[in-house]
Amino acid sequence: MTGQKGKSRDLNERLEFAANLHGHFGPFVALGVRMGLYGLRKLGVRRGDTDLHVIVMLRYATPVSCILDGVQSSTQCTIGNTRLTWKNSEEIGARFQLEHSKRQIEVLVKPSVLQELKLRLEVKPSDEEIRRIGFDIASRSDMELFREKR
Questions:
Q1: How far is it, in rounded angstroms, from Cα 35 to Cα 64?
Q2: Cross-strand bridge partners of residue 108
Q3: Which of 18, 28, 136, 139 has the highest local Cβ count within 10 Å?
Q4: In what order do the strands lie in the sheet with 104-109?
Q5: For residue 76, what is the DSSP state?
Q6: Domains along the sequence of the chain with CATH
């Protein structure tokens, strides 16, 4: 999906893991996985780094709340290990922060992506079409999906 075999295989494995955790696969799980990977890469940390804490900001309602499982699966920051929290917000994104160094980045889903998903999902697509939309979202560049909040 990313154009490089190793990275593509890694992304596919992360997406499959997220789908198994979540119970199905769709565009908001894909957004969560991609958002988690983006935060890890920008902070230069690995999945499972115990210094990393993530605050996911969104309105807690499906399908948007599915982002939480995508972020959990890609970062290993979970509600259970207390390194993932949720904050009610009209904006959809996440703040990735390293506890000891105080380094952080806030990533928001671009409104154009959310509007597109709203239009594509309001026609009540089949489960297979929802999966296709998820893979479409997963295959896009970071620049297409996200913006950093300064």
A1: 13
A2: 93, 147
A3: 28
A4: 84-88, 52-58, 93-98, 104-109, 146-149
A5: -
A6: 5-144 (3.30.1330.130)
Q: What's the angle, vertex CA 97, arms to CA 13 and CA 33, rounded to 5?
A: 20
At a CB cut-off of 8 Å and minimum separation 6, what does 18 contact? Answer: 25, 29, 30, 32, 33, 69, 70, 73, 74
Calpha distance 27→44 (Å, rounded): 25
Q: Which letter does DSSP use for residue 61 in this model?
A: S
Q: Which of 54, 103, 100 is nearest to 76 (CA)?
A: 54
CA atoms within 13 A on the CB side of 68: 21
pTM of structure: 0.91
| Total number of residues shown for the chain | 150
**Rounded distance between C-alpha atoms, residue 114 and residue 116, angstroms:** 5
30 has a pLDDT exceeding 50:
yes
